[in-house]
Amino acid sequence: MAERDATDANRYQLPAHERLMVDLGMRAYVAFASPATVLRLFRAEAEQACAIAARLDEQQGRCAARVRRVIGLEPGGRDWSVYMVLDHLVMVNAAITALVHALCVTHGQRIEIGHADVTPHVDAGPDRIDALRASVERHAEVIERLGPLNAHAVYPHPWFGPLDARQWHALAALHNRTHRVQLQRIARRFD
Predict the structure, then answer these.
(1) pLDDT digits (tens, 9 = 90+) for 127-145
(2) What's the rounded Cα separation, in Å, for the pair 178 and 70?
(3) Which Gene3D superfamilies does the UniProt entry name for this protein (predicted)?
């Protein structure tokens, strides 16, 4: 199998059937779950991710490990360390928090987020555990302050198209879940 260049766009894509499955699942979830319910899932998944990381020593947390791909996980993320996964979650949570705020409050202010903005640092360390907890609290503060997230403005996701604030919030919770499963698979390598 040929090696892919680090700039290969396919490393950031999900297979079409997974994009459809995740998209439909996320939209159905948003239709039935309140922002408060989604926030509970968002917090629980992030806390489980932190607990997994906290059980490892620093050397294990820094060790990149190839794991079987999780449904919803971009192919380029299969070779990350535990701390790299947490770093990615911190970046994505911060970006989604800013997007939700912009969609609900500033109505149309453009925020640009690219792959480089959410690509983890290879030297990510144990400080990412507290950083993830802080990003979760910041997201929770914004969601609780904004209330029902009824803004009509949308911002395009590269895989799922235009999403409103409630959909971005739900995607953040599902994203935490996807990477929590990835973390479990990485951590099993050290059992």
Answers:
(1) 999 999 999 999 999 999 9
(2) 7
(3) dinb family like domain (1.20.120.450)
**What is the residue range of 94's domain?**
15-188
Note whether residue 9 is domain-resident: no
CATH number, position 65: 1.20.120.450
Query: What pTM did the predictor assign?
Result: 0.89
Q: Which residues 6+ apart lie within 8 Å of 143 measured at CB?
A: 35, 39, 100, 149, 169
